[in-house]
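Example 393.
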Amino acid sequence: MEHTSGFGLPAEMLRDERHSRRVLTNRWFFVATRGDLPEPGDMFAFDLFDENVLLVHGPDGVIRGFENRCVHQSARLLDGVSGSCGRRLVCPNHQWSYDPSSGALRGATGMPVDFVDRPPDGFGGLRAISVGERGGLVFACLDPDADTADLDDLQQVLAPYTDPFHLDRGGYRVALHEREVVDANWLVVMVNNRECVHCRANHPGLCDVFDPSSFNGATTPAYAERLAEAAARWEAAGLAWREQAFDPHDAVRVARYPMAEGFASITFDGRPACRRTIGPWHHHDASTLSIWLNPNAWLHFTSDHIATNWVLPLGTDRCLLATTWLVHADAVEGVDYDVNHLAEVWRVTNAEDVELCRSMTAGARSAHYRPGPLGRDERWCVQFCDWIAANAD
Ligand code: FES
Ligand SMILES: [Fe+2]
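Predicted structure in complex with fe (ii) ion:
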């Protein structure tokens, strides 16, 4: 497969899912936060190609991953996105049961008495998937022996920014989780996410909330002034803010950005998204801590909520796009926040992006497709495409 730095991804990468599988085997990918499954027994499932992965918050507090497939007749243990399993994970079909900490088979209705104690090879429990949690962010990897040192390095970069939110200690609840199957290639969705050249023409709402300079790096004097003001405020509050873009860790870009004047949170009217503040904040701050993770996620921490967006491939022209909005665990819907008001910016912005990604995916099916050249303000697309190509071997 030929990839040239400075250009988009080659056709083979978009059309042959083995390349994507290799990326997801070679590197960790984002799948949830502790807020998606905050209590012991909580479960959270997602599709990846033809498989379904089940995350389980064990009685010991550890979040683990299993293939969501009963060893008996392959029924889903959790049918849907989220649920709770208590002390036994019971298959709804014939009630075979599993230990939520290890996935080990604990009960096998209708089988000989010693079946559970001496199960035949391959039937002793659920197939484990590599899952690692750092700072409340949950990652998975298709390699059963995935190297967790990479997650430690990632955490070193993120900790100064995310630690003040204490996401790893709980204290958050899901205000809303939405997911959509999109007829677009997941890598096209990610490349679109890595530039804001399309923002002015396609995200009129988002451009009211943020100066497009924030995400582009194409700084105007007015934005530079706003950033300097905000930086002084963050420094006084002891908060890290400087951008670290795929250096020193090649899978993460993180920075704090100011919102436009008059905006207390990421909402179209600028009013707070939630009355309860979170993490280090005791008042609303016109800023976001934004994190872009290779290969599949972008997260925004404001002073009153956290929005996580991530994408995973279902096929070469189909992907899963998921968004979770987290608020303070004590925030009450209808009192502290209105869920439509909280969710409106990413709902609208993601829908705008989905249309662009469908269009680019359809265009890239052409027999005459050639990866196009990327401009100066598309440098994070260059980083992404190079990274994907380097990790697909
Ligand atoms: S399929 Fe799960 S118990 Fe039969
Ligand atoms: Fe966009």
